[in-house]
């Protein structure tokens, strides 16, 4: 692994982060997240083997959430800490926002719920502090001042170390950063956002905020639920045994952002990206998945990419993207071009009228860096 600073904080993390949504299994779906019922979900023993191997490979950054299998993922990690004593070797991230009970106050980002959610996560994780505590989504029902003050209080009392946010749009991200500054609170250091060759929308606004404000981007679903792994073939509908995409291809009602519907991507735009990944992979002796991950790792706003896995082999293959090789500028440009879509208004206009207004003394994001 290589190690990067986590946003503008002094904390360093491995450039591959182990996502643990695959840890634990449920018999029925929770909050619409039927992916947790997938046959590829892992029980405790296999999850612990993956954690062991990840640490052996040099990883130090683990990401989870309280809602992953309704707390099972956090419990599995907590038992691994208890068994191995490796808590201090790990930068631990978790999240809160989703309802974890049937009560009217069992969800959201209110002071009451965040305080309880943090305490519950600490118990499941068998630790007395969380390194990176992230809001899992926006909460339109809670004043932002209440949420941010609560997170700062959790830092002040030592229960969390840093604050991150996830799954927000551009105006929300800027408001979060600005209000944190105005209130004199601990800064937001990361944005965890879906980001891949098949999901680049956040480059328009959210990531511009991150570049200007020193916030690190942690991409989730970097292989778009398996669509960028190379295992799916033209004119062959994925089968239920072929991961999450196979499950949603058989029943599109189960589709989520983490397990997208096959029919929405089975087009020439997708296959052209796949062809580009395959060609560049052959040039490096790498898999399509490794090239797709490497493309993200070479983005200047990305300190670490979150990968999920269901086997040791999958973990090792994905971690091969971490170090020892790189894509050339030409290869990065080719993938950028293949995965770019026509800019809509007002982005196309804004870029065009500012091409000759690049001021090297003004720390704004260069237009050349836009999507």
TrEMBL record:
Entry keyword annotation includes Mitochondrion: no
Keyword field contains Oxidoreductase: yes
Domain NADP-dependent oxidoreductase: 16-338
Gene3D superfamilies, sorted: NADP-dependent oxidoreductase domain (3.20.20.100)
GO cellular component, one term: cytosol
Example of a GO MF term: oxidoreductase activity
SUPFAM superfamilies: NAD(P)-linked oxidoreductase (SSF51430)
Record keywords, A-Z: Oxidoreductase
Domain of life: Eukaryota
Family affiliation: Belongs to the aldo/keto reductase family. Aldo/keto reductase 2 subfamily.
PANTHER family named in the record: NAD(P)-LINKED OXIDOREDUCTASE SUPERFAMILY PROTEIN, NADH-SPECIFIC METHYLGLYOXAL REDUCTASE-RELATED
Protein name according to UniProt: NADP-dependent oxidoreductase domain-containing protein
Origin species: Pinctada imbricata (Atlantic pearl-oyster)
């Amino acid at each position: 692994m290589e190690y990067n600073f986590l946003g503008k904080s002094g904390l360093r993390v491995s450039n591959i982060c182990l996502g643990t949504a695959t840890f634990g299994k449920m018999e029925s779906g929770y909050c619409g997240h039927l992916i947790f019922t997938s046959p590829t979900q892992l029980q405790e023993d296999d999850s612990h083997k993956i954690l062991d191997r990840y640490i052996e490979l040099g990883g130090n950054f683990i990401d989870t959430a309280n809602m992953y299998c309704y707390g099972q993922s956090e419990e599995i990690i907590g038992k691994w800490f208890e068994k191995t004593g490796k808590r201090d070797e790990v930068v631990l991230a978790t999240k809160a926002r989703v309802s974890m009970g049937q009560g009217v106050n069992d969800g959201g980002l209110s002071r009451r719920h965040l305080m309880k959610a943090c305490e519950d996560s600490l118990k499941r994780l068998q630790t007395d502090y969380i390194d990176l505590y992230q809001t899992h989504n926006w909460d339109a029902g809670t004043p932002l001042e209440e949420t941010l003050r609560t997170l700062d209080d959790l830092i002040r009392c030592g229960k969390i170390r840093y604050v991150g946010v996830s799954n927000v749009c551009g105006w929300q991200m800027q408001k979060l950063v600005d209000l944190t500054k105005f209130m004199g609170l601990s800064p937001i250091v990361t944005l965890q956002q879906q980001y891949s060759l098949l999901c680049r929308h956040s480059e328009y606004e959210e990531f511009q905020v991150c570049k200007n404000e020193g916030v690190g981007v942690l991409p989730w679903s970097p292989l778009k639920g398996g669509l960028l792994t190379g295992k799916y073939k033209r004119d062959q509908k994925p089968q239920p045994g072929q991961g999450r995409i196979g499950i949603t291809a058989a029943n599109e009602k189960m589709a989520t952002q983490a397990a997208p519907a096959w029919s929405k991507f089975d087009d020439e735009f997708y296959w052209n990206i796949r062809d580009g990944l395959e060609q560049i992979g052959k040039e490096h002796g790498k898999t399509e998945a490794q090239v797709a991950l490497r493309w993200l790792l070479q983005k200047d706003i990305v300190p670490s990419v979150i990968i999920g896995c269901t086997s040791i082999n999958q973990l090792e293959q994905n971690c091969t993207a971490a170090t020892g090789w790189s894509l050339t500028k030409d290869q990065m440009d080719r993938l950028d071009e293949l995965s770019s879509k026509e800019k809509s208004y007002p982005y196309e206009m804004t870029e065009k009228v500012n091409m000759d207004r690049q001021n090297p003394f003004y720390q704004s994001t260069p237009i050349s860096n836009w999507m």
